[in-house]
Design brief:
alpha+beta; Jelly Rolls; Leucine-rich repeat, LRR (right-handed beta-alpha superhelix); twelve-stranded mixed beta sheet; 47 strands; binds 2-acetamido-2-deoxy-beta-D-glucopyranose; transferase
C-alpha cells in the first residue's frame, strides 16, 4: 500500500512535469513559438530588443545535447539566444515538434544557426533541414561568427509540425534558435498546401542604419527586414507618416519598412539590382518568386507624375501601362509563379516617358519554392504511436514523422504511402525492446495496423479486447511476455472467423484454458477486480458448454471437443474451428464464449413482455428489446405453430455462433427454455431492404443510387464471405430483400440463416437436399429442377435483389399478369434504354454508366445456366467499380456539377499588381549580428531617364 502511494506520487509528479513541458511547447499568447535551442534549465531568456521570450528546448525535442559556443565568439552585442546551441551527434534525423497549431493554417518557420565553434573543431557542418516530411533547405554554415538564417512559409497540415535536422555526413547538425509565427491564410498566396516558400532575401530599401533589422513588434508577423542602402547610387525618400495597408493586403508590409524608399541619385537613372541563382541539392536551378513593395511617400502636386516600368531579366511587367503607386498606401507587385530559371536575376525599374519624377522602391522579397506535397502520417496514427513511444520510452530513431520521408521512417514501423494522402502505419514491430508495463490502449488507436509484434518483452497485465476492433489486424504477436488474464472474447471471435492470427506462447500466467482460469488468491481489493471478470467468463463458458452438450445429442461422435484455446509456441498458427462434415451443421467443435444464453423470463423483461413487434417471418415474430446495459436488440421468438422447426432454429443458432462478418447480422444470444426458443440479434434500426426500397423505411426516405450501391456491395460481401470466407462454406438458400437488414448507418447485413446449408468445396454439386426451399421469385431455376443447391443459387437470388435496387420494384410484378422482375427488365433493356427500368424516384440522380453496369451484373447473375453466372467474388469486384463510377460522377465527372469560367486574365502574364492595410508601429531595435546573405547585389546604370519638366 505504501509502495503504491509512492508510485502514485511519482506518477503524479511525472505527469505534472510533463504538463509543464507540454504547456511550454505551445504558442504564447500572440501565437508565437520562440525556442532558444540548447538553453539549459527551465527559465526563458527574454530578448532585449523585441522583448520576446525564448523558451528552453527540452519540451520540444528528446534528443541531442546542450552546448555553449566558444568564448571567442561571445561578443557584447550578441543576443543571449546565440550563446548556446543544441547539437545532435547521434542518429540520422533529429526533430523538434511544435504543437498546438491550427491544422491548415499558414506559418512562418525560422531556424537560426550560429556555430561559434561550440565543439572546438573549427569546422562548421553542412546538413539538411526538413519542414515536416518535406525537404526545406541545405544548411551550409560557412563561418563560425555569422548567423545563418533559414525561413520558410508553409501551410501546416496538422496540429503540429516537426522541424528536423538530417545528418548528411558533413559534420554534426546543430541549431541555435527556432521560431514559428502564424500568418493569416490570405497572406502569401503563393504558399499553399502543396507548395512552400523559402526566403532568399527580404530587403528594406533606404533604411540608413545598417544594423537595424525591422522585425517584431514593428512587423506584427515578426518577419526580418534587412536594411539595404548604397549612398553612392541611391538617395533616400522617406516619411514619418504612417503607410497604410488595405484590408485585403496579401503581404502586409509593415509601415516602418514602407516609410523608407530609394530613388536613383541621378534622377535620369534606372534602379537596378540583381541576385545570382543559388543551387540547392534538390533543385539545381531554383526559380524565384519576387514581391516588390511600393508606396509613394511624397504628395505629388500639379503636373508631377511618377510612373515607371518593372522589368525582370529583360521581361517588362504589364508593358502597356506604367505603375503609379498610391500615396502612403502599401502596394505590392509580385509574381505568382517562379521566374524562368537563369543564372542571374536582374530587376530594373525605369521611369516611363510620361514620368516627371524618378522611379523608386521601398522593399523587396525574393523566395524560392519547395514542394510540400509529401503527406505526413495520419494524425491519429501519430498521436497513438507518440503515446506508445512515451509510455515505453522507446529508444530508437523515433523522432519526427513516423512514416515520412520513407528513408527516415521509424525503426520497426511499416507504413502505407498514398499519393497525396496521409501515410498510415500498417505494421509495428517492437519485439525484443525491453517494454514493460501493461499493453498500451493506444495500440487500439492504430486503425490501419495489420501486423503488431510485441513479442519478447516484459509486458504484464491483460490483453485489451479493444484490439479486436482493429479492422485490418491480421497478426498479433505477444509471444514471450508476462501477460495474464484470458484471451478477450472479441479476439477469440476474430481468431475463429479466420481474420486474425494470435501468437501468445510463453506467457506463463496467461489463462488460455477455461479450467486453469482460477481466481487468484489473496484478499486485497485488487484481486477482487481481477476475479470478477474471470468468474463472469466461467459463467459464460459453462452456459455455452451446456448449450453445446444439448446440441450434440445427434452427433456422429468422431470429432473431439476442445473447449480451450491451446497456447501456441512454434510454429505459430491461427486458431480456426475444425471443418464440419458436409450436410450437417449440428457438428460443433469450437470454442464459443461470446453468446449469452437467456431464460424465457429474461426475454420477457428484455422485450417488456413481448410488447413491440418489429416484424414477422416463418419462424415467428421478432420483438424489440433492450438489454440491461441499454443495448437495443431484436428478439426472434419461435412461435409454437411455426412451420420452421427446431432444426432450423438450431441450425441458425449454430451458424451464427460460428461466423462473424460485418455484413452478416450478429447474434448476441439465444434462449432454449422448455418449449421456448428464441434468438437475440443486434438491432437493425432501418429494417429490411424491402421496406427501404418500397420507401417504407423509418424515415420514409427514398434510397439514393449511391446508398443502393453501398447496400448491394455490403450484401454481396456478406454472401461472398459465406461462400468463400467461412470454413466450411455455407449456402444461404434464402437470399431476398427481406433478409437483408440495414442499421442506422444504412450498412447492410445478411440475416436469416435458418435454411443455410454447409457444403463441401470440392464436391459442391453432390449435396442433395430432399426439399426445395426458398422464396418465389428468387429461386434459381436450376435448383428448382435438380433440388441441388449451389453457391450459384445464391448468386441468382442476389441478382434479383440487384434488380429490385435498380428498378425499385418487387421480385414478382403484376404486369398485368405475374411476371418475374428478370423477364420484365430483360424485355425493356432489349430496347436499349436504361431509363425505362430505373426507379424514377431517384429523379435521375445517378451515373448512367454505373446503373447500366449494375443492371448488367444483375442479368449475368440471373442467367439460366449456373456456369454462366459470376461468383460472388466477381460480383463484389464489379460492384466496387460501379461505386467508383458513381463517386466519379458525384465529384463532377457526370452531367451535373461541372462548369467552366471564362478566363479573365488574358492579358496577365503571371504578374499581378496588388494593393494592400497596416498597423501602428513602434520603433525597436535588435542586436543581431547578420551578414548580407545570398549574393544580393545592386547596380545602377546610366541611360536615358525621364526628363524632369
Ligand atoms: C499550389 O500552387 C501551385 C502553383 O500555383 C499549384 O500548382 C498547386 O496546384 C497549388 N496547390 C494547391 C493544393 O492548391
Ligand atoms: C503617356 O501619356 C500619354 C498621354 O497622356 C498617354 O497616351 C500614354 O498612354 C502614356 N504612356 C504611358 C506609358 O502611360
Ligand atoms: C542603428 O541601429 C542599432 C541597432 O538597432 C542601434 O543600436 C544604433 O544606435 C543605431 N544607430 C544609429 C546611428 O541610429
Ligand atoms: C533603363 O532601363 C531600360 C529598359 O531596360 C534600358 O533600356 C535602359 O538602358 C536603362 N537605363 C539605364 C540608365 O540603365
Ligand atoms: C523603360 O523600359 C521600357 C521597357 O523596356 C522601355 O520601353 C522604355 O523606353 C524605358 N524607358 C526609359 C526612359 O528608358
Amino acid at each position: 500500500m505504501v509502495a503504491t502511494s509512492w508510485l502514485l506520487l511519482i506518477g503524479l509528479a511525472a505527469a505534472a512535469i510533463a504538463g509543464v513541458l507540454q504547456a511550454r511547447a505551445q504558442p504564447d499568447n500572440i501565437g508565437f513559438i520562440s525556442i532558444d535551442c540548447g538553453l539549459p534549465g527551465t527559465a526563458n531568456s527574454v530578448d532585449d530588443a523585441t522583448k520576446l521570450s525564448y523558451a528552453p528546448d527540452a519540451a520540444f525535442t528528446d534528443a541531442g545535447s546542450n552546448q555553449n559556443i566558444s568564448v571567442e565568439y561571445v561578443t557584447s552585442t550578441l543576443a543571449k539566444r546565440y550563446l548556446n546551441v543544441r547539437s545532435f551527434p547521434d542518429g540520422a534525423r533529429n526533430c523538434y515538434t511544435l504543437r498546438s497549431l491550427v491544422a491548415g493554417l499558414k506559418y512562418l518557420l525560422r531556424a537560426e544557426f550560429r556555430y561559434g565553434n561550440y565543439d572546438g573543431l573549427n569546422r562548421p557542418p553542412i546538413f539538411d533541414l526538413y519542414a515536416g516530411v518535406n525537404f526545406w533547405s541545405r544548411v551550409n554554415v560557412s563561418s563560425p561568427e555569422t548567423v545563418h538564417r533559414l525561413e520558410a512559409i508553409v501551410v501546416v497540415p496538422d496540429e503540429y509540425v516537426h522541424v528536423c535536422l538530417v545528418n548528411t555526413g558533413s559534420g554534426t547538425p546543430f541549431i541555435s534558435v527556432l521560431e514559428l509565427r502564424p500568418l493569416k491564410s490570405s497572406l502569401y498566396p503563393q504558399a499553399n498546401a502543396t507548395q512552400g516558400l523559402v526566403l532568399f532575401a527580404r530587403i528594406n530599401f533606404g533604411h540608413t542604419n545598417a544594423t537595424d533589422i525591422v522585425r517584431y513588434p514593428d512587423d506584427p508577423r515578426d518577419r526580418l527586414w534587412l536594411p539595404l542602402f548604397d549612398a553612392t547610387l541611391w538617395d533616400v525618400m522617406s516619411t514619418t507618416d504612417r503607410v497604410q495597408n488595405l484590408n485585403n493586403d496579401k503581404f502586409e508590409a509593415p509601415s516602418k519598412v514602407m516609410q523608407t524608399a530609394i530613388i536613383p541619385r541621378n534622377a535620369s537613372n534606372n534602379i537596378t539590382f540583381f541576385w545570382g541563382s543559388t543551387p540547392q541539392p534538390r533543385d539545381p536551378t531554383p526559380g524565384y518568386i519576387v514581391i516588390m513593395h511600393f508606396s509613394e511617400l511624397h504628395l505629388l502636386t500639379g503636373n508631377a507624375v511618377r510612373e515607371f516600368f518593372l522589368e525582370t531579366n529583360d521581361v517588362v511587367w504589364r508593358s502597356s501601362l506604367g505603375f503609379r503607386p498610391d500615396y502612403l498606401l502599401s502596394d505590392a507587385f509580385y509574381t505568382t509563379a517562379p521566374l524562368p530559371a537563369a543564372a542571374r536575376y536582374t530587376v530594373n525599374i525605369n521611369a516611363t516617358a510620361n514620368s516627371t519624377l524618378p522611379p523608386f522602391i521601398n522593399a523587396v522579397e525574393v523566395y524560392s519554392v519547395i514542394s510540400t506535397a509529401n503527406a505526413a502520417t495520419d494524425s491519429s496514427d501519430v498521436s497513438a504511436i507518440t503515446a506508445i513511444k512515451a509510455k515505453y520510452r522507446v529508444k530508437k530513431n523515433w523522432a519526427g514523422d513516423p512514416c515520412g520521408p520513407k528513408t527516415f521512417a521509424w525503426d520497426g514501423l511499416t507504413c502505407s504511402y498514398g499519393i497525396s494522402s496521409h501515410s498510415r502505419i500498417t505494421g509495428v514491430n517492437i519485439s525484443f525492446s525491453g517494454l514493460d508495463g501493461d499493453i498500451s490502449s493506444s495500440f487500439a488507436n492504430l486503425k490501419a495496423v495489420q501486423y503488431l509484434d510485441l513479442s519478447h518483452n516484459n509486458l504484464t497485465g491483460s490483453i485489451p479486447d479493444a484490439l479486436s476492433q482493429l479492422p485490418s489486424l491480421t497478426v498479433l504477436d505477444f509471444t514471450s511476455n508476462q501477460l495474464s488474464g484470458s484471451i478477450p472474447i472479441g479476439l477469440l471471435k476474430r481468431i475463429q472467423d479466420g481474420s486474425l492470427t494470435l501468437r501468445y506462447g510463453n506467457n506463463p500466467n496467461l489463462c488460455t484454458n477455461a479450467d486453469s482460469c482460477k481466481p487468484p488468491k489473496g484478499k486485497s481489493k485488487l484481486s477482487i477486480y481481477i476475479a470478477v471478470p474471470v468468474v463472469l467468463v466461467l459463467v459464460i463458458v459453462s452456459g455455452v458448454a451446456l448449450f453445446f452438450l444439448f446440441m450434440r445429442r445427434k452427433k456422429q461422435g468422431s470429432t473431439s471437443t476442445k473447449n480451450t484455446v491451446r497456447p501456441q509456441n512454434e510454429p505459430p498458427m491461427s486458431y480456426a474451428p475444425a471443418p464440419l462434415p458436409p450436410g450437417d451443421v449440428h457438428e460443433q467443435s469450437s470454442l464459443h464464449l461470446e453468446n449469452r444464453r437467456f431464460t424465457y423470463k429474461e426475454l420477457e423483461m428484455i422485450t417488456n413482455n413481448f410488447q413491440h413487434v418489429l416484424g414477422r417471418g416463418g419462424f415467428g415474430k421478432v420483438y424489440n428489446g433492450f438489454l440491461e446495459d441499454g443495448t437495443q436488440v431484436a428478439v426472434k421468438l419461435r412461435s409454437q405453430s411455426s412451420n420452421q422447426g427446431v432444426k432450423e432454429f438450431l441450425s441458425e443458432a449454430q451458424i451464427l455462433t460460428r461466423i462473424h462478418h460485418k455484413n452478416l447480422v450478429s447474434m448476441i444470444g439465444y434462449c432454449k427454455d422448455g418449449q421456448y426458443m428464441a434468438l437475440v440479434y443486434e438491432y437493425m434500426s432501418e429494417g429490411t431492404l424491402r421496406q427501404q426500397i418500397a420507401g417504407n423505411g423509418r424515415h420514409g426516405k427514398r434510397l439514393t443510387w449511391r446508398q443502393r450501391l453501398r447496400i448491394s456491395l455490403d450484401s454481396a460481401q456478406g454472401l461472398e464471405y459465406l461462400h468463400k470466407g467461412c470454413n466450411p462454406p455455407l449456402i444461404h438458400r434464402d437470399v431476398k430483400a427481406t433478409n437483408i437488414l440495414l442499421n442506422a448507418k444504412l450498412e447492410a447485413k445478411i440475416a436469416d440463416f435458418g435454411l443455410s446449408k454447409v457444403f463441401n468445396h470440392d464436391d459442391e454439386t453432390r449435396i442433395s437436399m430432399n426439399t426445395l426451399v426458398g422464396t418465389p421469385g428468387y429461386v434459381d431455376p436450376e435448383y428448382q429442377a435438380t433440388v441441388q443447391p449451389t453457391t450459384k443459387s445464391d448468386v441468382y437470388s442476389f441478382g434479383v435483389v440487384l434488380l429490385e435496387l435498380v428498378t425499385g420494384r418487387q421480385a414478382i410484378l403484376s404486369d398485368p399478369d405475374p411476371t418475374s422482375i428478370i423477364q420484365w427488365v430483360r424485355r425493356r433493356l432489349a430496347r436499349g434504354n436504361i431509363e425505362d427500368v430505373v426507379d424514377t424516384r431517384m429523379h435521375g440522380e445517378y451515373d448512367v454508366n454505373s446503373v447500366w453496369k449494375v443492371a448488367d451484373i444483375a442479368l449475368k447473375c440471373t442467367m439460366q445456366a449456373p456456369v454462366q453466372r459470376p461468383t460472388m467474388t466477381d460480383v463484389v469486384a464489379q460492384l466496387q467499380e460501379c461505386l467508383e463510377l458513381e463517386e466519379g460522377h458525384r465529384t463532377g465527372g457526370g452531367r451535373r456539377g461541372s462548369f467552366y469560367t471564362g478566363s479573365n486574365s488574358d492579358f496577365d502574364l503571371g504578374y499581378n499588381a496588388y494593393t494592400t492595410d497596416s498597423q501602428s508601429t513602434d520603433v525597436s531595435q535588435t542586436s543581431i549580428a547578420f551578414e548580407m546573405d545570398h549574393n544580393f547585389g545592386k547596380t545602377s546604370r546610366m541611360g536615358g531617364g525621364p526628363v524632369a519638366r
